[in-house]
Amino acid sequence: MSDGTMEYMGPVRVAIIAASPQVRASLQAIVEAEPALAFLGSAADAETLAGTAPDVVVADNEPEASDALKTLFEPGRAPPALVLLLDDADSDGFLEELPAEATAILSRNVMPAEIVAAIEAAAAGLCVLSPDILARLLAGRKPLRQTASGGPFEALSIREIEVLAMLADGLGNKEIARQLDISDNTVKSHLSSIFGKLGATNRTEAVMLGMRHGYIMV
C-alpha cells in the first residue's frame, strides 16, 4: 500500500538555481559525487532550466524560486520538490518569504552530506528542516502557544511527533512500540508527555490538538 511517498527506479534528477557561479559549481560537484543523484543542469534562474524536468530543484537563497518553478513543469508531471538553502533564518521576513513548495529548508552552511540527504528525502516526499531552521519556525516570532486549558504550550519532541502521527493512524501502543523498536512502557511515557504538553485528556483529543498545532497533516 502506498504511503504517499515517491519511489524512483533510477537516480534522482537534480537541477540547481543559484545566482553565484561558485555556489552553482559547488552544488553541482556535490550532486555529481553522489551515484544516487543525476545532475541535469544549473542556472541563475528557473526560466533558463525550462525543459529539464528535474525531480528536485536545489535553490540557493531564492525565496521566490517556487514562483518560477512553473517553467520547469511538464504537462501531466508532478512539480519538482524544492530544497531551499537560506542565508539568514533570523531576518524579519523569513517566515513570510518561505515558498509553500519548499520541502527541505537548510542553512547555507550545512555539510555536503546533509544536502544530499535533504535531496533524497525531498524526492521521497518527506520534509526536512535543519535544527536551527526548525527552532526558528517553532518560535515564529509569535506569542507562546496555548494549551486547551489556556496554559503555555510546550513543543513536542521529534519522537513525540512520530508517536502522535501513529496515534492519528489508529495504531495501538503495542504496534507503535513494534514500529519504533521501543518498549510498551516507553510508548506510555511518550503518550503521557504528549498529553501533558498538548493539554489532552485522551488519545482522540491529543490527535485533534496535534492537528490544530500543525503536528499532523491531513
Tell me the CATH architecture of the largest domain: 3-Layer(aba) Sandwich
Q: What structural class is derived from the secondary structure elements? A: alpha/beta
- Secondary-structure element series: EHEEHEHEHEHHHHH
Biggest sheet details: 6 strands, parallel
Q: What is the CATH H-level superfamily of the largest domain?
A: Response regulator
Kindly identify the CATH topology of the largest domain.
Rossmann fold
Strand order, main sheet: write it out.
Answer: 2-1-3-4-5-6
- Rg calculated over all Cα atoms: 20 Å
Q: Report mean pLDDT, rounded to a whole number.
A: 76
**Share of residues in strands:** 5-15%
Structurally, the number of domains stands at: 2
Oligomeric category? single chain
**Portion in helices:** 25-40%
Distance between the termini: 18 Å
**Spans with pLDDT under 50 lasting ≥5 residues?**
1-8, 141-149
The tally of strands reads 6
Assign an overall shape.
elongated
CATH C-level class of the largest domain is Alpha Beta
Count up the helices: 9
GO molecular function, one term: DNA binding
Protein name: Response regulator transcription factor
InterPro entries: CheY-like_superfamily (IPR011006), Sig_transdc_resp-reg_C-effctor (IPR016032), Sig_transdc_resp-reg_receiver (IPR001789), Tscrpt_reg_LuxR_C (IPR000792)
Organism: Paraburkholderia guartelaensis
